[in-house]
Design goal:
Two copies of one chain form a homodimer. Chain A is an alpha/beta fold and 421 residues long. In chain A, β11, α8 and β12 form a beta-alpha-beta unit. In chain A, α4 crosses α5 and α10 runs parallel beside α11. Chains A and B meet through α2, α3, α8 and α10 of A and α2, α3, α8 and α10 of B.
Amino acid sequence: MSPPSITNVIITPVAFADPPLLNAVGVHEPFALRSIIEVETSDGVTGLSESYGDARHVERLDRVGVALRGLDVFSTTRMLEVTAVTLGGAVGADGHGLTGQISAAGTVLRTFSAFEVAALDVQGKLLGRPVCDLLGGAVRDRVPFSAYLFYKWGSHPGAAPDRYGEVLSVEAIVEQARAMLSTYGFGAIKLKGGVLSPGEEIDAVLALRDAFPLIPLRLDPNTAWSVATSIDVARRLEGGLEYLEDPTPGLVGMAEVAREAPMPLATNMCVVGFEDLAPAVSLGSAAVILSDHHYWGGLRKVCDLAAVCDTFDLGLSMHSNSHLGISLAAMTHVAAAVPNLTYALDTHWPWKDEDVIEAGALVFRDGAVAVPTAPGLGVELDRDALARLHERYRTCGLTERNDTRYRQSIDPAYDGHLPRW
Amino acid sequence: MSPPSITNVIITPVAFADPPLLNAVGVHEPFALRSIIEVETSDGVTGLSESYGDARHVERLDRVGVALRGLDVFSTTRMLEVTAVTLGGAVGADGHGLTGQISAAGTVLRTFSAFEVAALDVQGKLLGRPVCDLLGGAVRDRVPFSAYLFYKWGSHPGAAPDRYGEVLSVEAIVEQARAMLSTYGFGAIKLKGGVLSPGEEIDAVLALRDAFPLIPLRLDPNTAWSVATSIDVARRLEGGLEYLEDPTPGLVGMAEVAREAPMPLATNMCVVGFEDLAPAVSLGSAAVILSDHHYWGGLRKVCDLAAVCDTFDLGLSMHSNSHLGISLAAMTHVAAAVPNLTYALDTHWPWKDEDVIEAGALVFRDGAVAVPTAPGLGVELDRDALARLHERYRTCGLTERNDTRYRQSIDPAYDGHLPRW
């Protein structure tokens, strides 16, 4: 029997409506961009995946997709080699607009990831087994996620008010949490910070703690603070946070904060690749690493990261960008299979109204998603929705994410440089 | 479709003839003990594995085998959980007689490993794919092994001379190397040291270097030396060794040697579990870790170890005990799938004349074994041979390995304590 090889790859960029969520470098644009990857094989089975949607990333996906034709869909290691050779050391943007340029190795891994997930989807479908079974099997049947609170404007400029309303006060953020927990049942809360002053965000965390005394809280200012400010905020929030995420930039600055902070520090900004782990361990920069298969290099690389974290007594959680259902399925499968992924995962899921997958495969109940048991990722494309969101991509005018530029287009005095406080 | 579950487990201890190979703690007994594991599933597919054969380990395998019945053969993580619960913190011996007692966690992992490999064999057979494809696919089609030289007696006491002859001199060890390279084509040489005085073993390495100037050499005295002796030997062998393996006991002693030695240090004695890696990295105890799926906890755990090594800039090689063909197949599959396993693997293969597998699946050519492409591990049991070696186990009188006791039975004055020099 000849091995199932890749015969064709289809990359479909899509855009979906995104509310004006505020963060440390600006505000979410009216549309979030993603790419949908279909990997067709000689066995007639097609694998799905979802990745970043900025134009340069899509171009890389297209280029690598052609180069992968003919490869055995079980040899993901060979697929990685071909990805690296095809990209030839090209350096790309980070795809989520927060950490700037990424290394050549990082560019390879975030391109490869899209195909690795699709290959695992094919493998699972061929075998009749869910993807988590290709990673050692599920250690949990349900994967808990965290509520992801955002300060936000009431509408994109010129648009009608969105259904989420303006959230720029302590009272409004508590109300947002209440609504999100009521709808999804989340058992953990993350507040995207770095937007209001540190004092206002401290007040928000304290109000959330008062409102939800049994729910673990996290605060993520995306390196908006200096080391001194970070230490001050950390001390004032003693006992109030499960972890403090990326208060300040860089491995060294984070280590300075970590030495003084009473709670663990988490990061998805100073540790974004395997090459960052040894210095982070040596310096003590963070106690919790936020994984993300989209840029760590796929689901097996997240398992690798989990092994490193377990070995070096680091906690493991999961980062999220704005995403659709295929990514949620992939996140759920790998989180099901990794024993030491013990924190509730981040997800932007509540902030969107549309998707490219058939509804029903992924349902939040009590803040968790049941691990799909169907073969592969367990999700199917809704072709009409895919066509609609692709048409949106074609016409929306966005080709990359740039929260700072968008905010400056509304508020020319806005300065996106960090740390701000 | 209900998942393929484990219906029965058969553990068959076997004994095969082993020459009187000398090491730092004594001499190999006349028979090496192994266990052959068959995992039967509800799909009618049986998976194979091979593990240690000492009686206490076999008892643990029997006990865990019963407890695994009914489990999904794809959920190896659940199988690990059940193994841990079943053994309930029991502490065992190391199974190869060199490092003494092992931890409860180590006992769990070396018991689980036997079943993980068999489960992967089942998975591969169900899928029609070689085991390496369940680990990301082969990055190499052939896996190189190393010649494994031993000082040895000419025969076990009271027995006829064996076909390998006495090897206790520089000339004889060079002759052994020449014969082994001629037969197998190995491109690397490891000398088991700690047997003769350090000066004699230095002379042996220098003679091997003169005889085979292009072949990388390794020396493994199994912690027979003090720190001072280790540093002295290392300096005198500058430029002569690919790595020096376990010259002295303990993470701290190894680090002291590593600071002064001109070549990398390797270990399979001070780093034998994930809990040893953080202190080893912190202290700088070794530059190369020798993996071994039998005690690291299976093939996926070796992949985990490889990720840690890659992340922390450690080299990765592979350790061997006396073993049969099922273990060789498992070693070959995982080595094929791990990109950073760049050293030729250890194997005792040339020192045995019999096996439990059908001949032909694993052939050495130019020092390497072609990765099997048949489903699963790619080896099949020879039932007659299995019955013969099991009968040998029943009648040989050995129930555990103890090289020191055996040597003392011949030479009552022998003192097995280390370090000796």
